[in-house]
Write a structure and sequence with these properties.
Shape: elongated
Strand content: 15-25%
Number of strands: 11
Number of helices: 9
Helix content: 25-40%
Radius of gyration: 21 Å
Distance between the termini: 62 Å
Structural class: alpha+beta
Largest sheet: 6 strands, mixed
Order of helices and strands: HHHHEHEHHEEEEEHEHEEE
Strand order of the largest sheet: 3-4-2-1-11-10
Length: about 325
């Protein structure tokens, strides 16, 4: 009797958690359930195993087990594109062309282990460094590692939405933009690549829907869709990167990729969960790089912790030979 009560309680909870994202509401209480899809799948499988010995206990148990199996199939369907079994949307590079190496890191503004990030930068020697949640102290502490980067966009802030962007690649027409509100900057710049091609780079960090940040996902969704509409009409190579505060399998990200026609190099390779770095059983991919079909992937990886709540990400792309998408 106790086992049956536990089974029904857990089954009801996980079924509700699976169904809530179908409700297209902007309130964080709905949108946050899009994030832990892998965790929900593991939990569903656990509850199925828990309820299997009760299979002969009547129709209600069988109905719950059947519903759980449908939930498991649905959740696996959502996660499958981010497994090595799925098709790669960004082709693997054969290394014939020059490459562009990009390091993205949400540093966590109050993190004072500046040395850990400096070590990562020195070890990887990226062409581009894009840092989020950076204030004036982070700008000062990173100077020694940024000295070899002649091109930069700096907009440190104390509200956890400061941006620092350093590049060895020449920047044309760099901009700091405020697409939604003054406190949420983003960047746009044309990279003059080593191959001779030009690439439009968008760096973003919209606010997340959460009880401590934004009650609604409206600002995040609108910023991403504005960029998607802008990219849709651009006929040159494009990269969009940053902490999007959204998971790779959400409705918003799917819509962003559909409109922009950009590709996710994670697909066919792995989830590369970047948040929460300090809570291993609650991790999902929040830090992204999306690119146009001009690029091929040399390598992609999650780097060692820098004491932030996000892991840094390193992506190396082979450069396109022409401007045209």
């Amino acid at each position: 009797m106790i086992l049956k009560t536990i089974f029904f309680t857990l089954a009801a909870l996980v079924i509700i958690a699976t169904l809530i994202p179908f409700i297209r509401k902007d309130h964080w209480t709905f949108r946050v359930f899009e994030f832990p899809r892998l965790q929900k799948l593991v939990f569903v499988l656990f509850v199925i195993a828990l309820g299997t010995p009760l299979l002969q206990d009547g129709f209600i148990v069988q109905l719950f087990l059947g519903t759980l199996i449908v939930c498991a199939i649905y959740l696996f369907y959502l996660i499958f594109p981010f497994t090595p079994l799925a098709k790669k949307t960004v082709k693997s590079s054969k290394g014939a062309h020059s490459s562009l190496k990009i390091l993205i890191s949400n540093v966590f503004q109050d993190n004072d282990r500046y040395d850990k990030l400096r070590d990562r930068i020195n070890a990887e020697d990226p062409d581009i460094i894009f840092l989020l949640e950076t204030n004036g102290e982070w700008k000062n502490q990173i100077k020694s590692s940024a000295k070899d980067y002649p091109f930069k966009i700096e907009y440190p802030q104390d509200n956890t939405y400061g941006l620092l962007f350093y590049s060895k690649i020449e920047l044309l027409e760099p901009e700091i933009r405020f697409l939604i509100k003054k406190e949420y900057p983003s960047i746009k710049a044309t990279l003059k690549l080593k191959s001779g091609a030009e690439c439009l780079f968008f760096g973003v960090h919209p606010p997340p829907p959460s009880p401590t940040e934004k009650t609604y996902s409206t600002d995040r969704d609108n910023e991403l869709w504005l960029i998607a509409k802008e990219v849709e009409d651009i006929e040159m190579p494009v990269i969009v990167a940053g902490d999007l505060n959204d998971v790779a399998w959400s409705f918003t990200t799917d819509r962003f990729l559909e409109i922009s026609k950009l590709l996710d190099p994670r697909k066919g390779r792995g989830i590369f969960a970047t948040f929460h770095a300090k809570v291993p059983f609650m991790r999902w991919p929040l830090d992204h790089l999306f690119c146009s079909k001009d690029f091929e992937l040399v390598k992609m990886g999650r780097l060692k912790s820098i004491n932030s709540d996000h892991f840094p990400v390193l992506i190396e792309l082979s450069e396109p030979l022409s401007r045209q998408r």
